[in-house]
Amino acid sequence: MLTLKRLQLGSILLQLGSVSQDQLDQALSEQRRKNNTKRLGEILVEMRMISEQSLLVALSKQLECPIVDLGSNPPSEDALRIISSEFAIRHLVLPLKIENDNLSVAMADPLDIQTIDDLKLLTGFNIEAVLASPTEIRRAGEQYYLNQMMAGAHELEAGNAEEEEQDVADLQKMAHEELVIRMVNGILNQAVQDRASDIHIEPFERELRVRYRIDGVLHEVN
Q: Does the predicted TM-score (pTM) go above 0.85?
């Protein structure tokens, strides 16, 4: 008898009751159509047949890879510094912690061997992948990297003389530009997905608070 980890993802989802056979057949048909290169799980989520969380549970069982809650397990400052924000956001990864020669990284796709190999070359660490949803990784990455850069900018400003303030502002603007664009796009996309009627953005000294109004109630984005 096959063990759960040897089963294909579709079989695991069926065992867990996350999808019906008819839904699975529809997704497989969509995957075959026009040589769709997306993974089955991604297609099922896009077709709204399963949630990202259901997919994570199935992938965790298939790959024997733990799921991490990024809200309860924030990345360390040392880990954030070792991978650039551009690389993290582009590849949907988030460095979490460094232990000896190992770097723990939250990934939406632990089967992405190319990204894991790139991380090894870039950091010099062995990579320990843990699972997190793409949405959580994107949100957390934008939040933590932006906070990190804002904190760094404040430190620079505090340590420089008045005549250097304009140079610091220019450097800060350059460092923020691409990330801010990505962050704003992420905020807007998530607001649409959550059917928010409006967005409240509150900047503080070292962090940015974002809240969506959904059905008349403000919900803070973690």
A: no
